[in-house]
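Example 3.2
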Amino acid sequence: MLGGGGGLQRGGLAGGGVDCVFGGNVPIGCGVSGGAALECGFAFGLNAMLGAGLFRVALAQLAQRSENRFVGVNCGIMDQFASCMGRERRLIRIDCRDLSYQYVPFERDDLCLVLCDSQVPRTLTTSAYNLRRAQCEQGVAQLRQHDPEIQSLRDSSMAAIEAIRDEMDPAVYRRCTYVVAENQRVLATCAAFERGDMAAVGTAMNASHEGLAHGYEVSCPELDILAEAAQAIPGVLGARMMGGGFGGCTINLVEAAHLEAFHAGMAVAYRDRLGKPPAIHVCRPTGGTELLS
């Protein structure tokens, strides 16, 4: 999943529904958007029971609103959108400004999406997630003083940020440069998927983790260890943290022929560097929320 920036980015590249083995239950706080899935499933069920006739995008918006207003996390809509709008063997490029979207094919049987759970619980309401959002908004306010056309960081550029770097708090500068760079990675990754250049997708994933760890600063030591270990294993095209950060999972793009070696290598990293048993889940994009007959 490529995306981030507290909803202030151009959009994101997200998996739809994600089918993976979790022993029957999604672990709480593992960073795979279980909360968004619960919100969307509840809204979808009520919509069907009451015959309200709401479309899927509206249900995603309702689920996001519950996260913002009731839970208190000032998140964007990517997780809820993916939960409602997912399609089999497709990723979704979302424009978070107008909610336009397009499906990006992910039909490579020779590649696997693999999650590695850091087993560090992720609780965004008590993390610095909302602070990151506020820092981006502060950066936008400063940029707007020089260019009134800038309404969010998607309207800005590295050159514009560099031009007022001396006016910015260093942390705000790092947040803003990360988001602008990530926006460009989203577009470049979509283009790479379209032309089948999975090596470029992996390179973007690695760069994204670097930005999340050191620019947006939402990683943690365990996630950094898992990403670093994965990137050193043959057959791994890319590895990065996923979700809101501060814990949860990494997501890894792994050649299917090297999946066994990936499991073995990551088991060593878990044991020797984290002192934990491995928690590794092979996933695939599936359809979004549905009624069960």
